[in-house]
Amino acid sequence: MARDPKYDILFTPLAIGPKTARNRFYQVPHCTGAGIMSPGSQAGHRGVKAEGGWAVVTTEACSIDPQTESEPTHLASLWDDQDVANLRHMTDVAHKYGALAGVELWHTGHGTANLQTRGVSYAVHQWAPTSWKGLQAYSHEAEPEELKALTGKWVEAAKRGRDAGFDLIYVYGAHRSLFAQFLMPNTNHRTDQYGGSFENRARLWIETLTAVKQAVGADCAVVARFCVDQLMGPGGVEVAEDGVRFIEYAERHGVIDLWDLNISRYSEWIEDAGTSKFYKSNHQGPWIREARKAAKAPVVSVGRFTSPDEMVEVIASGQSDFIGAARPSIADPYLPKKIEEGRNEDIRECIGCNVCISRWERGARIVCTQNATAMEEYRRGWHPEKFTKTKSPSSVLVVGGGPAGLECARVLGQRGHDVHLCEKEKELGGSLRYITRYPGLAEWGRIVSYRELQLEKLKNVEVHLGLGEMTADDVLGYGADKVVLATGSSWSPDGMSAITWGSLPGADATTPAMLTPEQVMAGKEVGARIIVLDADGYFTGLAMAELMADQGKDVTIVTNYDAVGPMHEYTAEKGLFQRMMIEKGIREMTGHWLERIETEGNRLRLIAYDIYRDGYVRAPGPETGKPPRRVGTAVMPLDCDSVILVTARIANDGLYRALKERRAEWRREGIQGIYQAGDCYAPRMIADAIFEGHRIARELEGANPQEPLPVRREMTRWGPENYLQPWE
Length: 728
Fold this sequence. Notes:
single chain, globular
């Protein structure tokens, strides 16, 4: 099907300095966790986007020299020829599919701890330790001659980028990078030629842009990524002040071929990579439109765009010349091609959960809730749109229409199996049926709607709803060759958690005053004074608290963690959740748990204790039968009307266990194997449940699909011939 003509504007070419982008789809720099040490994964992830129609694909932040590195998180680097060789794989595959390749050269000033190289980073000042992965990491206030040398290092990195085949060279100055630190009034207190006036604060960035332009500008486009407003008021960059002023200043110097514009609070980049919980698409639009007035060079900006109609409005209105995307390009690498082919309904839309970011922030590769193939392109050989057709079609029964079951059925159908998806409820979605009713999480419903539509298109997939709980007899007698159980999980009704390694004395969600999250969402009555007991540490505890606060309840969260919802430190949402709690009057008691829950008439008394109440002095040696520390006994009684137990999820594996007990009957009934996908195997994040459903469907013909097949590893080969002892 041809594309709708109203989208033609998205497919017009546009020059970027000496290069031309084939359309207006631009994958802006984003981290993957591949860095420089996994060149196959780096190339595979960017390459499938180029194949999917993105006109530009760029690296993550790329260090210019060992003075600025990011361990334990993994980024690219262009320190030497070995880096050039590794990144060449990415540019080759981008060019193979007609895309331009960009590299985001950066230096983070006092934002770098250099835990691996042990270097001391140049900065605008010798500031106190940075709060970003750099506790006790001080920087060096660079002298003017050191800043000149740093510009030279940037030029050398730019030349290496050109030699690696990159078409666009970034001189990165957004977020908390070195150039931003020099430009910001409240961080630059210098009195030399690099401080004071606007021109002086902008000097280092302009000098570096000029030098890079002179060095590689004939061969490569020079791009500036600029945070036009740091959302800090007059202490930081404001769009109507230094934001517009810097754009005009750089334009007068003629050193910019493309502006990559965004907004972000200096210390909280969720203001750029906003989750759907807090921000809608194009939330940066008002700031970008203001900055765009000053830009003569083309502009790219982001906004978690997934709607083709909104993309057209962004281009047609003049807000931006390119549709910038990081997370939407991860969720659907084929987004441009689907629009071009008139298949808008097939777009796998980003849900804005920031699970991708959360993995990278923990030092691992990104994953995606919507796209199970993200970062699996090279090591597993997975393609987001192409599936190896099975040579031995099977009749497969999938029990459970939650995220794992839906994805498994979709991929099995794509591969040519005869699939029957059976769901006990009258609608698909599993736990997402109620999670999408949590405050701000409606867009997570895209997980279900996308897969539901894809299943409708597959003639070899049947979906059966409202069947009730399937029994072992039902499964054994169904007539399927293979069975995948995706029966999900349920919140523990007895307060089981990893703190007590068992149930919590007195906890019982079958009683009126105690509830699980499912019961709350099903409408079970809740009292006026609420305590949310949270050992889960992610979104559910906070969602329960916010729901209750919105109903006018008195709410306290009690958690064993040092902070409420610590997972949100990694999704970048921590600060916004803390502000929400303050504004809605939600109290918190961190670092505490319960000894027991006591029922007193219509009220509850929770016996809380500090998890570190035991003595700090350990016994000098083993004493059999005695704890090694003084046993603490201090408690704090807490009174309330209702307790919401967000302590642990329990796998709904009863059906599997019943079938396993009758394993001798499988062969007689023609069943070759029964497997578990998602939470019924082990409760986990939605992205991981979907991944497992996807993986089992890809590997169904293997000897044991329950066990993942080996992946292609990227390793440095090592041997005695590599080892030198310079001290000998």
